Structure prediction request, 689 residues.
Amino acid sequence: MIRDVSATTADAHGLVRRSLLALLGIKDVDIRMQILEQARTAVDRGLHAGGAFSATIPLVALYYSGLMRFDVENPTAPNQDHFILSKGHAVATIASIYADLGYFDPSILTGSRSAESVLNGHPGPLLPGVHSATGPMGQGVSVAAGLALAGRIDERYDVFTLTGDGELQEGQPWETIMYAGSRGLDNFCVLVDFNRGQLDNPTALHVDMEGLSSQFHSFGWRVFDVDATQYGPVYAALETFKTGQRDGRPTVIICRTIKGWGAGARELVKHKTTVSDALAEGERAVQARVREERITRFLGVYHQAVAAGCEREVASLARHMNLAVDGSNVSALSPTVRLTRATKRDKKIETGAVPQVHADRAYAADEIIRMAMSAAARDARVASIDSDLSSTSGLYAGVASVDQRRAENVGIAEASMMAMGEGFAIRGYNTWVSTFCPFFNWNVMRRIAVSYQERAEVIAAGGWLSDGHNLDLTFLATASNFETKVNGATHMGNDDVIVYGEIAHVKIIDVSCPNLLMAVVGWILEGNRGLNYVRVLRAPADVIYAERPVFEYGKSLVPRGGANDDVAIVTSGRGVHEALAAADLLARDGVGARVVDMPSPDESTMLEIHDNDTPVLFAEQNNGFLYAAYQRVVYAKRTTVRTDHVRAVNALDESGKAQFVHSATYEQLIERFCLSPPQLASECKNMLT
Prediction:
């Protein structure tokens, strides 16, 4: 008798696949039981139940199928796939999986949401293995796309993200979806938890999303639209993405399910619910029965696999899922913490020879940035992303002159640009993103700052991240102060510095001089400088500092005068040039003026200004960022506050309220707001009388 080897092999493969799917079903129940236990012990007994349960099948399939490459011991190591949970409300699901895989001890799942816990209502780097803080805004899709772009440079890896149909009613994900399709990010896979529910109505969407498949397809994506109430279709789509032929398109797997799928109790369909002991006990009983049924079905397949000689393969699949198989049962193994602390990263960028700035000519900021980045990008850890304004930043030209793969232009998509920049920064790049001052997205910057803070707390506490693993991300803000001139109020950068200056951990730097800009760039490239909002001039500016100054955040420079002068003018950015011209006018009248260039708030100089009797004028082409910082400092550090010798001239209206600045030439604007050199000189004289 001739044995049909090909048929035997095919049969064995089919049995192994059926065993895998059956084991995933068993693992599914274990994860759901752990989700319930999290809710039962949470400080508020709360659970984002609907989304957590509908996300279980996609996430269990992703992490336990063996398709995704990930290193639990070292999740920051190169050459592994990455995952970003964009729909942060499913944090209970990913936390249960991570505890089971060994990213952290399962005890962390107890007492979540409390002040003592690192497991919050949304995921973030406080939780070992989580790379980015996310919520319900769809921003994780953009972070994941940034990781995917980085994954096509030297390290080849795939990136997965899970979003929801509710999140896809946000605008930002579509910025990324459009770009990823046009860019051909075929190492990028988006799973959509299409559960047809939202917060206010868990059983219906506010916006019809039934055209989702055609929408993704129209933007150049490969689309799998699958039944996600069972493992087979989800696994098949993931398998095609991971092992099939890539065709130059990103992949979306639309996982059709319903909110709360897999739960027995109607209460667990809700967006968020309080899990009482009675609800938890009843649901555990339901899940236990489901587990027994699934074990019975699995054992039927398993015995066939044993007969076909596939026992070892099936046992190996089970071990990968932290399960043990014998001839009569499938038991869950106790998780073992495997994660170790990340190796320290050296973040210093080696630039080599940096071009010199000549004191006898004017430079636009984009020229300085292009020169600096052409040198910095020789280090492969420098990356830049523009959003259709690269002509004003110089980033793209500088980085692309060395390596075009590390220079991106995402088009008119500022929010996506910022979050994609975080993706690069997660991988250790010194990353720069740029647009006009008021075009940066406040809520994206804030969420990135949350990621930064959580990383900082983990590093300081000796947790899973070590020195060098925080985000180095610079927001290069062009056309600052009155530089936008005739473009209109929507483009004018007078209030941006106040708004972004109130976001924790964002360092504001307002640059006056081409040589100072070169010094600021050098300071950032030292590494571990965090989140920097650097305001630069658009029009050419004269060199103020003939020799490149030393920049230190929180320290002023004094390009003219000294402590014994009659009056001091404190300013930054383009305002320094006007202050110097005003000092020249005052000198003709025998008045000595000290000009203080304060690119970042300098507390020591502010206190010195307060404590001395010398009249001081804060002159700012914005809504008074430095003056507001001065007031905070003196009220915090002095028991008695003096106001008689300090005045402020800025873009606030006559009553001191914020306003928007309309179109005009630069000369008209500084005249209108009393910030021209003659007006500054006149104000200084008035203070002396």
